Amino acid sequence: MLFRYLHRALRRIASYAIDWTVSWRLGITSLDRPSKVALKSVDTNQYWSNTRVHSPFPVTRLFNGRKTFNGKAITFDIEGISEGPGYHPGSKKFMASIFRPVTLPDTPMPLVILLHGFAVPVPYLEEWHARKLVEQGAVVARLELPFHMRRRIVGTLSGDGFFALDPERTVESIRQSVEDAAAIIAWARTAFHIDHVSAMGFSLGGLVTTLIATQLELDAAVAVAPFCDPVHTFLEKLPRNAKRRVGLVGTSGGVWGMTMGEAEVLLRRVLSPIIPENHMEIATPPHRICLVAPYYDNIVGFEPIVRLASSWGTELISQPFGHMNIMTANKLAPLYHAWLLEDHDSPEQIRKRGRTRHIQGKASQDVAIHTIGRREGA
Q1: 3-state secondary structure the chain
Q2: Can you tell me the distance from the alpha carbon of 143 to that of 128, in angstroms, rounded to the nearest whole number?
Q3: What is the pLDDT of residues 240-266, one digit of tens each?
Q4: How many folded domains does the chain comprise?
Q5: d(CA 224, CA 200)
Q6: 376 within domain boundaries
Q7: What is the CATH number of the domain that holds 118?
Q8: Span 160-201, pLDDT tens digits
Q9: Is the residue at 377 inside a domain?
Q10: How far, CA to CA in Å, does 35 sit from each of 32, 166, 182?
């Protein structure tokens, strides 16, 4: 018993230490200071109906195919037209890497699109998951989000420019990310024999995953520590050095208002289209969506993820990890992959088996998945 308590205490300390280090890195991200901040409210449904999510731009395959994963897969790049903030090449064209089995089967295959987190410099985590998924017969697409990696502004760090102090500008970056993912899904359906489409995202990619699920019917979705309440994160979890630059000192709302209350009202009004909880009619059935909430998340917070699961009625995994180390928790990876590739119980079956079930993980450890009922009136 004492060993268990010590293990949990050390894990919690390690979680906070890792998140603090990453938080410091996020705090030095450049933030564009606009001459004025957008104040108008935005209708969520109308905003997304005016995007190209349902009429995506065409995609071009680049003929740079090569074997990877010790010869177990073939990878090549694709690119397509994209529309978003900025004037650099990455704002006008998206890039993604495709991984597929060396031998294509005669039977239909599943497609998994992987979406990385904010400020990721190299896609180590996504390619590790891609390797495991390809070994199980899936086609995997790894999208690079705007302002990241090959799409970054030359001379800047990966992620610089994605967020801005003008919340309307941030909404546009998220909108562009969702449109790019939708274009890849539409292309893959014609390029391969696909019968099952799923998405998995981490942190910022988790937000994009949930927004894709609101607009397109997916067979499965996993959002790991998703950035699902930008307002909460900006006002409560922003790194201290970034807060000073924004002006969030004491009770001040910085560039967003005289007080924190004013700032919250403004942000919730303008960021409405990218707050998943505002989407109460979603294209993907909630029982196909799994949200992963780390207890000790010091970057996006634990409460917003649980609140979204309650609002939508999705499945929820809550584990004693921090924001960063839950992404590399090997015992959870097989569970994510099974969720992405397998068919899911119907709501009737879920009611019969109960709201909580345990999935066997590594080292004889069980992982509990909770089915969260929708809030009254939601």
Answers
A1: CHHHHHHHHHHHHHHHHHHHHHHHHHHCCCCECCCCCCCCCCCHHHHHHCCCCCCCCCEEECCCCEEECCCCEEEEEEEEECCCCCCCHHHHEEEEEEEEECCCCCCCEEEEEEECCCCCCCCHHHHHHHHHHHHCCCEEEEECCCCCHHHCCCCCCCCCCCCECCHHHHHHHHHHHHHHHHHHHHHHHHHCCEEEEEEEEECHHHHHHHHHHHHCCCCEEEEECCCCCHHHHHHHHCCHHHHHHHCCCCCCCHHHCCCHHHHHHHHHHHCHHHCHHHCCCCCCCHHHEEEEEECCCCCCCCHHHHHHHHHHCCEEEEECCCCCCCCCCCCCHHHHHHHHHCCCCCHHHHHHHCCEEEEECHHHCEEEEEECCCCCCC
A2: 14
A3: 888 888 888 888 988 898 899 999 999
A4: 1
A5: 8
A6: no
A7: 3.40.50.1820
A8: 999 988 899 999 999 999 999 999 999 999 999 999 999 999
A9: no
A10: 10, 9, 33
Give 42's pLDDT tier (boundaries 50, 70, 90). confident
Q: Which two tokens stand for residue 6?
A: 């010590």
Supply angle C-alpha 248, 326, 311, rounded to 5.
65
Among the residue ranges 13-22, 90-99, 112-121, 339-348, the one predicted with the least confidence is 13-22
Q: Would 378 be classed as within a structural domain?
A: no
* Residue 310: pLDDT band with limits 50, 70, 90: very high
- Distance from CA of residue 291 to its chain's centroid? 10
Q: Is residue 33, in this structure, part of any structural domain at all? A: yes
Residue 120 · residue 143 · CB < 8 Å: no
Position 34 scores a pLDDT of 64
Q: How many residues does the chain have?
A: 378
Amino acid at 8: R
Q: Report the amino acid identity of residue 80.
A: G
